[in-house]
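Notes from hallway chat w/ T.B., transcribed later so I don't forget. T.B. wanted the structure written out for a chain they're using in a teaching module, and asked if we could keep both sequence and structure tokens in one place. Agreed to drop them here.
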Amino acid sequence: MVLLEELVNQYRDLLSKSEKEVLDIILSDQRSYSMYTSTELANVCHISRTTLLRICRKIGLMSFSDLKVILKNSSEVETKSQKMDFDYVCNIYHNLIDELNKFSYEQICRVLYEAETIYIYGTGNEQKTLADEFKRIFLFTGKLVIEVFDYGEMEFVRKNFKRTDLFVIISLSGETKEGIRILNAVIPTGVRLLSITRLQSNTISGLCDYNLYVATQVVEQQNFYELISAFYVLLDLLFFNYLEYITEVESYEV
């Protein structure tokens, strides 16, 4: 299932500033806008129907009807705020796993397999914990994984980057200034880039060659709490898909 956030990230470099602003408006309330006509949505965005159709085509859609379908699909996995309930939270995890299972990991597994060295950076404390887990599970397969802790360390190690290496960045929002700064310094080296972020249009995903997304969920009790354990589920699924990939590749080489 293609989601609007993925299309915006995929075609970000082809979009003008004003077109990105229009798409940000649409992304802000996909559930409501999925019910709008083309005229109503164009009016909300202060553009003409012709301009709206042009934007649709720039992100790979043939018509406004295609956008309506995308909006409907996207709204079904949109982050929701609900009252805390054990059964509800269990249902969230089931839905998150179902969404992660729909993704094809083959291309990512190929890049991981081809990488002589994997460098990984987490933008915050929780993301650095995820980076540690990534490093732990892929060391098990014999991959060399080097964790980068900050910009200064990245400047030190980037002189060793090879084009076949992979630089992985983990960011919840995909908008952290330090993460963007590090990516902008890594890009000129030609190393391949993989982002792992929350499922939303974001700068970091747009800067990377490959993207993995997690549709986190928010539950509400006395305070809001975002369930980010789906990131760990993603790592597990990626790891098991990678094991299947290397088994298949090595069977062809025999």
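Follow-up for T.B.: The chain has 13 helices and eight strands. Might be a good example for the class.
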